[in-house]
Design brief:
single chain, mainly alpha, Type 1 dockerin domain, two-stranded antiparallel sheet, 6 helices, 6% strand
């Protein structure tokens, strides 16, 4: 009969339909989806954690404020985080789709010379390393803002090691 619900026309009990819907919801929640379809707060996947301040799953919730314009804040959330470093890393490996915009390239190129336009060739693993060091407190600013480059930091460390006296030397 036209216009009658499926369970009445095909003799499927209402309870069975309800059980199927509940089962689907349980499977969805167990696989990390909430009823709305977004990742739930308690399931972020491999190596990720839920960061309530960003309302999303990230590799780390560590965050640092912007100190040099917007350099380093590739995802544009107002903080420099490990997520920004991961975007730079993925970009250097060609794994990012869509690719970074020209503005994002400029922001990602933290070892740039001021006034020079950045391109994909300028955003390298060195930029990833510098942003990572900044997020984890190993540096206070970026080379583009007057901070030491990776090469300068290594030279200083080498010089320090060479100036130390050998064991037993006076």
């Amino acid at each position: 009969m036209k216009g009658t619900p499926l369970w009445e026309d095909k003799a499927i009990p209402k309870l069975l339909v309800v059980l199927i819907v509940i089962y689907g919801a349980i499977i969805g929640i167990q696989s990390g989806l909430s009823i709305t379809g977004f990742a739930s707060a308690n399931y972020c996947g491999t190596n990720k954690v839920w960061c309530p301040e960003f309302s999303k799953c990230l590799y780390s919730c560590d965050k640092k404020p912007l100190t040099c314009g917007s350099y380093g804040d590739v995802d544009g959330d107002g903080w420099i985080t490990y997520n920004d470093a991961r975007i730079i890393y993925s970009s250097t490996l060609g794994q990012l789709n869509p690719r970074l915009t020209s503005d994002q390239l400029e922001i990602a190129d933290v070892d740039d010379k001021p006034g020079r336009t950045s391109s994909y060739y300028n955003v390298t693993l060195v930029d990833y390393q510098i942003v990572n060091q900044y997020v984890y407190g190993k540096r206070s600013t970026f080379p583009v803002c007057g901070g030491a480059t990776i090469r300068q930091a290594h030279r200083t460390a080498d010089l320090t090691l060479k100036l130390r006296p050998k064991h037993g030397a006076v």
